[in-house]
Amino acid sequence: MVAGVRARLLTALSGDPDGTPGWVRELAEGDDAGYFPEDGAAWAVHAGVGTMVAGIRALLMQALHPGALAGVHDWSRYREDPVGRLTGTVRWVICLTYGSRAQAQRETARVGRFHERVSGTYRAADGAERAYSAADPELVEWVHLAFTDAFLSCHQRWGRAIPGGADRYVDEWATAGTLMRVADPPHTEAQLRGMLDGYLERGILRRDERVDDVVRFLRRPPFRESRSMSLAYRVLFASAVATLPRRYRTLLGLRRSPLPVVTATRMVLAVTERALNSGPRSQDFARLRLRRLEAARA
After folding, report:
1. Nearest-CA neighbor of 265 among 294, 290, 241, 289?
2. Residue from 140, 170, 178 nearest 152 by CA
3. How far is CA 69 from CA 3, 80, 123, 208, 259, in A?
4. Residue ranges of the alpha helices (H) in 76-136?
5. I need a labelling partner for 195 at 20 to 30 A (CA). Which of 3, 139, 144, 157 fits?
6. CA 248, 152, 99 angle in degrees (round to 5)?
7. pLDDT-derived band of residue 80, with 50, 70 and 90 as boundaries?
8. Confidence of residue 83 (pLDDT cuts 50, 70, 90)
């Protein structure tokens, strides 16, 4: 049973039932320690199973910016290939977190090449028609903020202690923001929350029919062939909603479930962690690189 759950999870997350596609095996290669310290804040948060909820929460938050949502609506294949879209995002996070600097830079360049052609127009919250591109400073910043907030918040709810605390995680992950050309990423939890709320207070965020469409899509479990996985996803979605501050839930038109979904999620994540830990994980390949580098210096 555990092996079957692990295979289904790893197929969704990495595109490979063993969780070892080429880009994961490449984590063992390279000639430097990477951007993030071993067992530091970023390693801990991104290895935590709270990321299963964080991914959903990040997408819900990102959808509230009409420019970011227009880019997803116009250019993403998330409807036709939701697992492929998920795998692409997971690949970027894993390679930046655990890979060598060279691998992280190649991965950032791969994402950047796709973003080069992402452009169009959208209707802003004030009703004006505006142009957008994936390189717009505001859109890049919003995506970084929504991601960092989601992963930090969900780890705080379901994960273990963060080495160095929440501020250390925000500070470390600012490096990823800089690599993705965020001009001034936050370095503390307070800065992160303040920058997020600034978008709401300035009236930049909005709900429209596209937001409602994304919410309906995210409610649909991507594991429809597996009843147990489908049920687990529904619990995770409900918990993603429950972790959102009320002002963002209201803007999204969502309500917290009356059921104890946060507690149920602990059970789902415990099973998930057991399944993932029954075999090698990404950080294990990164450790092979680090031990090799240490031996070479000895």
Report:
1. 241
2. 170
3. 36, 17, 11, 10, 30
4. 82-98, 101-115
5. 157
6. 130
7. low
8. low
